[in-house]
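FAQ
Q: What does a multi-component entry look like?
A: The components come first, one per line:
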Amino acid sequence: MTAFLKRLIACHTGCASTGEKLDTKDQIVQIATELIQQRGYQGFSYQDIATRLDIKKASIHYHFPKKEDLGVAVISAYYQYIQDWIGKYDLDKMTALEKLEQYFQFFAETALHGELGCVMNGFLAESGSLPEVLREKLAWFEKWHMELVTMKVKEGLEKGEFKKRGTPEEQALFIIAAAMGALNMAQDKQTPGVYDIVVRQIIESLTC
Amino acid sequence: MTAFLKRLIACHTGCASTGEKLDTKDQIVQIATELIQQRGYQGFSYQDIATRLDIKKASIHYHFPKKEDLGVAVISAYYQYIQDWIGKYDLDKMTALEKLEQYFQFFAETALHGELGCVMNGFLAESGSLPEVLREKLAWFEKWHMELVTMKVKEGLEKGEFKKRGTPEEQALFIIAAAMGALNMAQDKQTPGVYDIVVRQIIESLTC
DNA sequence: GTCTATATATAGATAGAC
DNA sequence: GTCTATCTATATATAGAC
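Then the predicted structure of the entire assembly, as tokens:
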């Protein structure tokens, strides 16, 4: 497990006892991530973070002069987090389906299995009022995200594990949309286990 | 076409020429809906609406004393809008698939086929900071939404139009998640036609 | 029903001391 | 790197005149 992952999980589970000391800058990114998942980008303030860390707002401006700098850092960290997660596995020994299941799993863990929303949704839902630099970073992430899933779909099709429906890109789009939508729905706590249910439906529709 | 639908579309297409005069209260709800789709609930202010209508903030407070009152009204209007839409059709003569396609179509129209995001996502993505009354209204809407789609799935299963995968509720959850996710993804303008692509994938996975 | 005026709180951000 | 102090803008909301 990578350092950032440890930190993210440590924070999500109560900010305690990983034995690893975090510097303030990382802690800020970590807390901002969580707040964006709960409230969206505009829904958190430097004061919220300052209160949690028991420091002052001005200290946060030292690390991230503008709020959009922090927003960009959150997306970068999230990207790195996923890359690290993937790096943990021996991809050569896995089937395409196992790789896709792994994808669903880390997607779920970043949201604590529905306790929090999808990080990207916290930005996307407000994209009409996001600063340009954030919209660009968001587009950059989503492009990479699409490529990641498209690769997995292509592999599954080549190996005959997945059923072909439209182009691989279209199937990837469908997978991402369903997974993101499920994480978002999980937030209103109406249907426990939405995410797992939706993931099972996606896999079934891909394989049989 | 119902009055509200006319109004909503009129607003979305430039607030002009339906021949129908709207009262201020309806116009406020209309504009708030659009702003929530673009920026989320916290992303718009009474000032934004006042500027568009060329009135003062205080006038909006007359109609909706608190912002959460306006938020609740937006959800109610959206519910009514969908009900009215459904009422336009002769449901007896339609197949289950046609009914589902109709559902996807009005879902798309409320978001101008991807020009705007999903109304509910504008709330859901920020649910961690929503006033209690709004969270309740949101849950009420989503419960109804689920029942609506579940009914359509059940009908399709009974008629043999849809393939069974898990329970009808699980299939409905999957359909809603994918559709909502697609509308949200459409906002970053990266992949033109995401919504239509995803809808086609959903239908294919249901029927073959 | 809309206005002016105002209250109060909080936002993002900067300057400069330690 | 964190602090105090402060600036400026804007948010939600209310009171009372027209």
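Q: Is there any commentary attached?
A: Sometimes. For this entry: The domain at 92-208 of chain B is CATH 1.10.357.10 (Tetracycline Repressor; domain 2).
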